[in-house]
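@channel sequence for tomorrow's demo:
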Amino acid sequence: MAHEDVGAPAPFAAPAKGTVVLYRGATLIDGTGGAARPATSIVVDGAHIRTVAPDGEIPVALLAEAEVVDLQGTFVVPGLIDSHQHIATPPNRPVAEAALRRQVYGGVTAIRDMADDLRHIADLARSTLVGEIPGPDIHYAALTAGPGFFDDPRTWQVSQGAVPGQVPWMQAITEETDLPLAVARSAGTYATAVKIYADLPGSLVAAITAEAHRQGLGVWAHAAVFPASPAEVIGAGVDSVSHVHLLVHEFADRALTTYKDKPPVDRDRFLAGDDPDMAELFARMRERGTVLDATNTLWEWLADDADTPGEKSRARENAELSAALTAQAFRAGVEISTGTDYETAPGRPYPSVHDELVFLVERCGVPAVQAIRSATLVGARSMGTEDSMGTVAEGKLANFVVLREDPLADIRNLRSVVSVVKRGLRLDRAAFTSQNSPAGTAGPTTPLPEGATSR
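structure tokens (generated this afternoon):
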């Protein structure tokens, strides 16, 4: 080309291959659910992990080749994954960038965006991927629903300048829809998956799922789509279902009709966490490998934000129901991811996924090591990226979090972040918390825990 403009700066880009860093001496909790591995070394080459091995097995030659970061006395977990986020409803670039920055400095190296204005999301995903701004990798879905859903004001917020239901990232589906074309339009947004939201019968849920899978896309669905029931959604072969409280609609007293017309359900029958009918539904999920994106703490957040005592009470009741159902799902062997569907207030130091992890342990009885697995390996499975992330392992992306305190002793110790490595780039937590580092301006640094050394 005769002329090329200079691209935007990318201060948060992954280091080049050949940039070798050896992290030594940490206790590794690798995301598989296995026992912690003390005195472990992680060798990072560029954006990927070259080797994970006991400190004593690292060749002397590598010690001479690599930058060595001594992490003795610290704990390492894989980068956390929030499997249910919305960061562009409505689009607001400064707000989104601030949320993404807090997420990555809080240990979140990937998120699953569950339908938004994908014009905006695609640009943010590119910006975090190439390193123009700090933030997690973003994997996102294009939404499908029945025509009746598209008078929801949120659909207009994310389709400004166009007509909701008629855009590639938000399509109205009927029996007459050309599904191969509709799914191809979704794929053209660079979406990871199709999200199935509302007002679709079981037959269409199954047809969309089959076509999306044929074209190589994942399928992420609400646990009840109305009129499609939870059993129909699970039976269709979707990869994940969101919102555990919706599963009770499998046992409603009348037929499901539309998203806006949810029938009453006897919720008390599920609060003991041992309902035999629910157990059968969970058995089907386990057999199919359907991931449960429970979104437990969404209800606590809504309760805190409620305007009336009645709204607060209903939200608290849903939180209680969610806890009982998620605990039963875990005991049944269902894979549970840590989606939140909200973000904590901007003044909070850590993003919402930390609250979801505490809820899993303290309200659902999930052991800390399994909760970490939910936020890492299962999170990666929820978006089809298990081959590249979710555990600290050879060949995977170098996404991990260095902690000052042991998260197996107390899950709240996940908030003791010292540094985050995302695609091989080290980010110092102090750069986020420092009053001298305004949001969006702090660059990558070489973070070290107190007393550690690097050369």
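heads up for whoever presents: Confidence is low (pLDDT under 50) at residues 435-455.
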